[in-house]
Design brief:
CATH class of the largest domain: Alpha Beta
CATH topology of the largest domain: Rossmann fold
Radius of gyration: 24 Å
CATH architecture of the largest domain: 3-Layer(aba) Sandwich
Number of domains: 3
Distance between the termini: 24 Å
Number of strands: 13
Helix content: 40-55%
Structural class: alpha/beta
Number of helices: 19
Shape: globular
Largest sheet: 7 strands, parallel
Length: 474
């Protein structure tokens, strides 16, 4: 079978997290061919892969959203019929357009996105929105905001679609719409897997974003809900990583019968034999993460600076790439400003080698799904201090039916005092830390094995084709 895996902002340009998951996922299915359809932001990343692609990856197709800005204006005006105009009104309003109608216009007929966004039709729709929702806001600001939202979407709809028997998007958003487009073009099923709930993550980013005009934050959020809704609508199956995430998908409009959750899994054998750290007079804390705002490294640095006053022999090692270089520079500057000793930024490292240097690990994220870094730490018998996001509390305390015990501490996100207190408990109670580490190791061994996860996804593929055949023959 030829499977097109569609990714946004991660593999093969970024290491860790979802990228690592996808890489291992494809390697674990040598019986299938994979096409990687990658959506990136900047064309400068073209061909700059951080991974050596598995042998069963037979094609890579790249799309960069910034290239939408290079599209040429076409003077020929396309005359929309009333059905098309109605769907364009829904689209510009970020409501619930009929995506198949948009596909016919912008993929099949190759209607110019620029021509539409500079047309009287677009202007009429926008004027109505301005009168109804933004009567006291600059029309120019609204025009440029909406245009910047919609242009990349219309641009990707004109993409050449790689051939596949199944389209599997590892998110909703732009990649989810491409999965639906692939299904439309080649008359095959598509499915979606969300590691985090894409729309909720974008909503959090928009709320914090300084580049978004405050009056339009609600509109931007609506835009991402529109993309996710379009991706969910026709998918044969929608998977998530844990039960609460599945319930969120259902709340956002997914049909319950399409939804199921499949927990992440890791190669337990790679980590289970890592020895415990030898006593060296320090308590060494590892933070295996990408340096980006969503990991909230700044709160971790504040918490550690406070911890250092209570536990002078504590050391913090931050291991991971600079996912956001500007944010990374801010973190380096903050660490220097706080004056906390024994903070080490390691960059990208071999986690297998560095794990044996750690007594426990910490993850300070403001958004997560079911983080692989935590499972790897657990498998190596290192307990964790985590923030209560995604599935983290269930990892620490155990999911339903798991009575193994606690494997760390879970604290509210962005709460530096609580994070500091939890790290202090880990530092000053070594016997309890060791007990939690043993529990953590047992939890991964029993519930989070990579081979079981892969079999679950293979079963989902079978179910997707079964449902597709039933829908076609109905």
């Amino acid at each position: 079978m030829r499977i097109c895996v569609i990714l946004e902002g991660c593999y093969p340009y970024v290491t860790g997290g979802v990228s690592t998951w996808v890489h291992q996922y494809m390697k674990a299915m040598p019986q299938h061919e994979f096409v990687v359809w990658a959506v990136g932001a900047n064309a400068k990343d073209r061909g700059k892969f951080k991974y050596e692609l598995p042998e069963n990856v037979v094609e890579v197709k790249e799309i960069f959203l910034e290239e939408a800005l290079k599209m040429q204006f076409v003077k020929t005006r396309y005359r929309f019929d009333e059905e098309e105009l109605q769907e364009l009104r829904e689209f510009v309003n970020c409501r619930r357009p009929n995506w198949e109608t948009l596909f016919r216009m912008y993929h099949d007929k190759k209607v110019s996105p620029i021509a539409f966004l500079m047309s009287e039709d677009f202007l009429d729709i926008l004027v109505k929105i301005c009168h109804e929702e933004y009567p006291y806001t600059s029309f120019s600001d609204l025009f440029h905001t909406v245009r910047s939202m919609l242009l990349p979407v219309l641009y990707i709809l004109q993409s050449d679609v790689p051939k596949a028997d199944l389209y599997h998007s590892i998110a909703t958003g732009y990649s989810g719409i491409l999965a639906r487009l692939g299904s439309y073009v080649n008359h095959v099923p598509y499915e979606i897997t969300e590691h985090g709930i894409y729309t909720r993550e974008r909503e959090e980013e928009i709320i914090r974003a300084k580049w978004v005009v405050p009056a339009f934050k609600r509109f931007w959020v609506r835009f991402f809900y529109m993309l996710s809704g379009g991706a969910y609508e026709k998918a044969s199956m929608i998977t998530s990583l844990y039960d609460k995430a599945m319930e969120m998908q259902i709340e956002m409009g997914c049909a319950r019968e399409k939804c199921r959750y499949i927990t992440n899994g890791i190669h337990y054998e790679r980590f289970c034999s890592i020895p415990l750290k030898k006593e060296n007079g320090y308590v060494d804390i590892g933070a295996v993460l990408r340096i980006s705002p969503i990991k909230d490294v700044k709160t971790l640095l504040y918490a550690f600076a406070q911890l250092k006053k209570r536990v002078p022999n504590a050391r913090l090692y931050i291991a991971g790439p600079e996912d956001d270089k500007e944010y990374a520079q801010e973190c380096y500057a903050l660490s220097k400003h706080l004056g906390a000793q024994d903070v080490f930024f390691l960059g990208t490292v071999n986690v297998l080698e560095y794990m044996e240097k750690f007594d426990f690990t910490v993850l300070s994220s403001i958004s997560e799904g079911l983080p692989l870094a935590v499972l790897e730490s657990f498998a190596a018998e290192r307990p964790c201090v985590l923030t209560d996001v995604g599935c983290c509390k269930q990892l620490v305390n155990g999911m339903e039916g798991d009575e193994l015990g606690t494997a760390g501490y879970c604290v509210p996100p962005m709460f530096r005092e609580a994070l500091c207190d939890a790290m202090e408990m880990m530092c000053v109670h070594p016997a309890e830390r060791l007990r939690m580490g043993k529990t953590a190791k047992k939890r991964v061994e029993k519930y989070f094995r990579h081979e079981e996860m892969i079999q679950n996804y293979l079963d989902v593929y079978d179910e997707v084709f079964k449902r597709w055949q039933e829908s076609v023959s109905a």
